[in-house]
Structure formats: C-alpha cells, structure tokens
Design a protein that fits this description.
This protein has 141 residues and is an alpha+beta fold. It has helices at 2-16, 21-24, 65-72, 122-125; strands at residues 40-42, 45-53, 59-64, 77-81, 87-88, 91-92, 103-107, 112-117, 133-138.
C-alpha cells in the first residue's frame, strides 16, 4: 500500500542504517484503542459495515474473503450497498472487468470486500461513510 511505501519503508531504511528509534519518532503513552466491528452472520446473510474510505473513495468493508467463501459456499449472491437500490451480483478480480462508472465489488490485497465505482467515487456518489451497512444475501440451492 502507499502508506507502506511512503512511511514504513523510510523508517525501515533509517533503522537499518543504525538510527536509534528515539530519533525517528516520539513514544506515545496514551492512545485510543478501538476494537474493530465484526461482520455478523445469520443463515445465508452476512451483514457488515464500511470500516475505511480510501484515498480513491473506495469503501473497504469488514467482510473478509474467507468469511464470504465460508458462508456462501459458491452460491449465487447479491451484495446490497446501504439499501436494495445499489446491488452487486458478482465479485471482480480486477477493476476493469466492469464498465466505467459502474458499481463493483472486489477483494483487496488485505482480503477485505471493497465497494468501488470504476473510475469513480463510490463513497461520495453513494453517500457511504464508516459504519454504512453492506449486506450479502446468498441464494438458496
């Protein structure tokens, strides 16, 4: 990811070059620790939420590929973004598998379901923010 390149790689180089950790940053004693929300499962439905909006305005959810595969077991599905009006019925492997301006679902490099609009601004156009609801309904049979 970009943060790894812009921040962590520079710090790693300094540490490898012998710079003491105390010269690189300031220790933090008190910080707000948050427990991430987990997606819930009920029968053939996963209910998750948006946990992050990235710099491209893609909405990253707390629905993992592992959970999706385990609950869905290869069944057809519909992903509802906020409501039944915005629906996705397939998972892309690449962004360009969907027409420009169309809504898509893709598992990102962290294995989390990402809601995006090809060459668009999903969070802004769909009014998504952290805690927006994402629901996956798997079909019977």
């Amino acid at each position: 990811t970009f943060i790894a390149l812009s921040v962590f790689a520079k710090v790693a180089c300094k540490l490898a070059g012998g710079t003491p950790l105390s010269k690189i940053g300031t220790p933090v004693e008190n910080y707000d620790r948050q427990t991430p929300l987990r997606a819930t499962i009920e029968d053939l439905t996963i209910t998750g939420s948006v946990i992050h909006i990235d710099s491209y305005q893609n909405a990253i959810t707390n629905i993992s590929q592992e959970l999706f595969t385990r609950v869905g077991r290869g069944k057809a599905f519909e992903i509802y973004v906020q409501n039944k009006y915005y629906m996705i019925d397939r998972i892309n492997k690449r962004y360009n598998e969907t027409e420009e301006g169309e809504l898509l679902g893709i598992f990102n490099s962290s294995g989390l379901l990402e809601i995006a609009i090809r060459n668009g601004n999903a969070a802004g156009l769909l009014k998504l923010n952290t805690n927006s609801t994402i629901r996956v309904d798997f079909k019977e049979g």
